[in-house]
Structures are given as structure tokens and as C-alpha cells.
Amino acid sequence: MHSTRLISALPFWLSLGFAPLIAAGAAWGGWWLLLIPLYAFGLITILDFITGLNSANPQIDTPVSELFWYRLITLVWFPVQMALIFGALYWVTHTDHLRGFEVLALFYSIGIASGAVGIVYAHELMHQKSQLERWLADLLLASVLYSHFRSEHLRVHHLWVGTPRDPVTARYNEGFWRFFTRVLLACPRSAWRAEVALLARGGRSKWSASNPFWRYATLQVLFLALAWGIGGGIGVLLFLFQAFVAVLHLELTNYVEHYGLTRLHLGDGRYEHVLPRHSWNAAHRASNWLLINLQRHSDHHYKPDRRFPLLQTYDAGEAPQLPLGYPTMVVLAAFPPVWRRLMNPRVREWRRRFYPQVTDWSAYKSGSTPMPKGAR
């Protein structure tokens, strides 16, 4: 039984494939550096076509003790990511083995890993009650200088997804680059307001030591100092570059997950409860292996505390379906005309299927429906 669980969990360890590929790129440069994006976006997409869709749902009452081999990959990734980032920083700043454009390509590849894997794992870990897992989430997010994502995700996104209060619900017809600029500016302020409001409800000041932003800032400064200690100014710039690439991939994913989907306004600032229909679902097997079932996003929002091996998938009658897995969808999202041509008809079909009673979508499109009651 123990070995059976290990075998069934092993496909979710695909993320470790980044480590030897990044090491090969650092060692040999040149065309080897193409292997990382080809692995992340090309090979996984090909495997999606080969392995097809996975519509099977696990038993949701499976005890945590039987999920060890699934959870272990999220626990060991932090030291792997640290070795990749800071090992590469040492390598490129203490040798002249790689040319300038190869160094940039290497750290772009590391940013893919720290974003497509590191932030995805941080997302899983931050939802858990274990202090170890929450600390690992904070460390992973600090390593890409995006610590406020934890506050924004838990205190805002999960409460107000599909409403004007949620900055990361992409609006209908909103191109990714406009969305990206908007969330980079809005989310830190939004996260701060949410934490300050929570502290105020407990009778504490925003300057209280309980404000997680002080922990976020300390961890981020420590990582920047480590980058400086290893590689000086160049080390800091390369660290910032991989962090930017990681955040770019996170926000591409955020954009895809809820594009054009809104919760019904019931009047007086009240919105319907979050349902599976308010997230795009994708049952593509291989990309769910790499992204630890993140594409079963409809169930994640419906049951946020459910661990990734137990997430359920839904058919088209319950949740809207993406035509391809995230690795392909995030690439298409970077090209707004292509994205709109592919996804806008699907959003309109979603409206007809789930909300035939709504005849005027203009306020939903512009994000001008009333702010949710109780939102801060």
C-alpha cells in the first residue's frame, strides 16, 4: 500500500526536472538554455495531448497521513529553489563561463521555475494550518519579492473573487499587459488594507508586530542581502530579474484562472457565494502533475482548505472548461488579440449557460458593479 501511494504520487514530482536542466544550461550555455522553457511549455503540453484528460476524482476523506509522498515535494522544493537561484548567482559572478545573453537566459529560466513551481507550491502551503508549511510559503514568496501575495490571496482574493474588490479577477476584454500593470500597482495596497482592517478588528494598530508585512519585509531584505553578498550589484540585478519573471508567470496564471468570470450581484452590495462556475477548470493530466492540480481551480475556490491531491474536477455542466492546459494558455494570454479570439466566445457561452436571466453585462465588464458589502 505504501509503495502504491509513492508510485501514484511520483508524477507530481515533475518539477524536479527543472534542476538538472538548469544545471545543464549553467554548465554548457548555448542551446542547452532552451531546454528549460521547452520543458515547461513544450514537453508538458505534448504530454497533455498524449495523456489526455483526467476526470477521476479522489476520495475527499483520505487522511493526511496517506498523502505524505504528495506533500513531500512541496516541502523539499524550498532548498532546491535556493540552490538553483543562489548557486547560479555564485556561478555566473565568479566565472566567465557564460556570455551576457546566456546569463539572462539562465535567470529567465530560473524565474520560470521559481514562478511556475515555487509560487504554485507557496500557494498550496499558505492554505495549510501547519506552521512549517506556512513558513515555507513565506520563504518561497520572499525569494521572488512577492510576499504580499499571501495576504492578498487569503484576505482578498478568496473572499471577493469575481467582484470589483478583487484586483486579480481579470475583466472581460482586458488584455493581459493592462491587467499586469493594474495588479502590480493595486495588489500591495489591497493586501495592506486587508491586513490593517484585520488588525483593527482585533484592536491592534497597523504598526503592531502582528502585522505580517514586517515579516515579509525582513525576509525580502535578507534575500536581497544574500544576493548582494554572493554577487554584489550584478547579483542583486539578476536576483531581481528572476523575481520579475516569476511574478510575471504568476500573474499570467491569475489572469487565466478567472478571466471574464463574475459573481452575480444580488443587490445592496451582496454577491452570490463562490461556486465552481467562477473559475476556469482544466482536467489536462500532465500539466496538473506539474502544477500540483492548480488547474482544478474551481474546486480550490469552492473548498480552499482541500489539499492538492484531493481536489475534485468538474464537467462543463458545473464549471467552465479551458481548451488547453495552463502551460499553453499562459503563452496565449501574453498575446491579447489571440487570447480574445479564443476566450471571449467561451465567456459569452458561460454567461448564457449559467446566467440566462442577465441581459446587461456592461457593469460586470467594466468592474463597476457595487463594491461588496463588508469589503475593506
From TrEMBL:
GO cellular component: plasma membrane
GO biological process: lipid metabolic process
Regions crossing the membrane: 33-56, 68-91, 103-122, 221-245
Places the protein is found: Cell inner membrane
Membrane topology listed for this record: Multi-pass membrane protein
Alphabetized InterPro entries for the sequence: AlkB/XylM (IPR033885), FA_desaturase_dom (IPR005804)
Coiled-coil region(s): none
Signal peptide: none
Pfam families (alphabetical): FA_desaturase
Family: Belongs to the fatty acid desaturase type 1 family. AlkB subfamily.
The protein, known as: Alkane 1-monooxygenase
Record lineage: Bacteria, Pseudomonadati, Pseudomonadota, Alphaproteobacteria, Rhodobacterales
